[in-house]
Design a protein that fits this description.
Elements (H helix, E strand, L loop, with lengths): L2 H9 L3 H22 L3 H17 L10 H19 L26 H10 L2 H12 L4 H8 L3 H28 L1
């Protein structure tokens, strides 16, 4: 089934098309939610809510942009709403308070699986901004609007996330060599 057929079928509420959409995109979309929401059970709840929104609001998809991108935005928004409800999204610090070193980018020092493991260890605010900026490709202005924070706070959270990841990486690699 092509993407267009899948979309048309879901707009007609065809159960076979809905199942095909789930089968094709569930792992990708759950992975997005899981990067934001630390606990598996909570991530599953957020994912179900996001899938429900996708299936019930698919008629609003105008087929002008990427369907996958449209679904990803819904999942990210669901995850952000969950974090706000849980009061887990505490973002503090101003970029003017930080000293930015000339260190090599953390993304270039480690592999993708290590990044995901490290991201999971970050505090919620750091993890959220890191995911939105590095993984999802949002700009700081977009992050600031989505999270109702300043652009400087978004930037500082990203800097602090990378700094914490460097610390965690050094700690993890030290433990590996010490073993």
């Amino acid at each position: 089934m092509t993407e267009q057929e899948l979309i048309r079928g879901c707009k007609r509420q065809d159960p076979l098309a809905q199942r095909a959409l789930y089968d094709q995109y569930s792992s990708l979309l759950f992975g997005i939610v899981r990067r934001y929401v630390r606990h598996q059970e909570d991530a599953e709840d957020v994912f179900v809510e996001g899938m429900f929104k996708i299936l019930t609001r698919i008629a609003s998809f105008r087929e002008e942009g990427s369907f996958e991108g449209w679904m990803k935005r819904i999942m990210v928004n669901e995850a952000l709403m969950f974090l706000r409800k849980k009061n887990n999204l505490r973002l503090v610090a101003d970029v003017s308070e930080l000293q930015i070193g000339d260190e090599t980018s953390i993304e270039h020092q480690i592999h993708a699986d290590e990044i995901l493991a490290l991201v999971d260890q970050l505090p919620t605010g750091y993890r959220t901004v890191f995911n939105m900026y590095v993984v999802e490709g949002y700009k700081h202005r977009e992050i600031a609007e989505a999270l109702d924070i300043s652009i400087n706070t978004s930037k500082s959270q990203l800097i602090l996330a990378k700094k914490r990841m460097r610390e965690l990486l050094k700690k993890n690699r030290f433990h590996k060599t010490a073993s």
